[in-house]
């Protein structure tokens, strides 16, 4: 029996190493919003490669434009939304896109985004391959949005 496991062990190690050699998108969601409006998508990007990479853009058939943004409180105490051309994802680390911080902005929605729906978004990286993910539409109340109603992103 031990000989069987010993013969499978190198393959198991190789497969586990292959599974951890890419950037993974997880825990994605997008805010519910009406057609012609705007919305924001959130997720976690985990870089399991041995090299830094950069998110350089995103795209979706669900909006006229898809942009990378960051919300920050300015020196005057007012929340500002700042376009980002790239977002660095260091090797072995993760970057969280969350309300009030980094987000993927959907401008000019081509359809209603109703809670329970799902859209497709493609993430574009400088060094790696594109990643297409299905993103569930959530109502902000589902994501602990109390106190943030009407605030976007």
How many helices does DSSP assign?
1
Query: Whole-number average pLDDT?
Result: 85
Order of helices and strands: HEEEEEEEEEE
- CATH architectural arrangement: Sandwich
In the CATH hierarchy, the third-tier topology is known as Immunoglobulin-like
- Report the span from N to C terminus: 57 Å
Categorize the overall geometry.
globular
* Main β-sheet description: 10 strands, mixed
What would CATH call the homologous superfamily?
Answer: PCu(A)C copper chaperone
Features of this protein?
153 residues; mainly beta; Immunoglobulin-like; ten-stranded mixed sheet; 1 helix; disordered C terminus
In short:
By secondary structure, this protein is mostly beta strands. It is 12% helix and 47% strand.
Q: Could you walk me through the main structural features you see in this protein, from its secondary elements to its overall organization?
A:
With 153 residues, the protein is mostly beta strands. The chain has one domain (21-143): Sandwich (Immunoglobulin-like), CATH 2.60.40.1890. 12% of the residues lie in helices and 47% in strands. It is built from one helix and ten strands, in the order αββββββββββ. The protein has one helix at 2-19, and strands spanning 23-31, 39-47, 53-59, 63-73, 79-83, 87-89, 94-97, 102-109, 118-125, 131-138. Strands 1, 2, 3, 4, 5, 6, 7, 8, 9 and 10 form a ten-stranded mixed β-sheet that branches. β4 and β5 (79-83) form a beta hairpin.
Please write out the topology.
Layout: H1 2-19, E1 23-31, E2 39-47, E3 53-59, E4 63-73, E5 79-83, E6 87-89, E7 94-97, E8 102-109, E9 118-125, E10 131-138
């Amino acid at each position: 029996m031990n000989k069987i496991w010993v013969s499978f062990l190198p393959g198991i190690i190789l497969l586990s190493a292959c599974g951890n050699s890419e950037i993974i998108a997880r825990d994605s969601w997008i805010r519910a919003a009406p057609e012609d409006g705007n919305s924001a998508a959130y997720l976690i990007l985990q870089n399991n490669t041995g090299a830094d990479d950069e998110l350089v853009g995103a795209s979706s058939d669900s909006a006229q434009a898809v942009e990378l943004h960051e919300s920050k409180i300015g020196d005057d105490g007012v929340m500002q939304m700042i376009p980002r051309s790239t977002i660095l994802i260091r090797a072995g680390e993760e970057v969280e896109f969350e309300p009030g911080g980094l987000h993927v902005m959907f401008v000019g929605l081509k359809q209603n985004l109703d809670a329970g729906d799902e859209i497709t978004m493609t993430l574009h990286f400088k060094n790696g391959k594109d990643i297409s993910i299905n993103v569930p539409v959530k109502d902000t109340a589902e994501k602990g949005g109390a106190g943030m109603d009407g605030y976007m992103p």
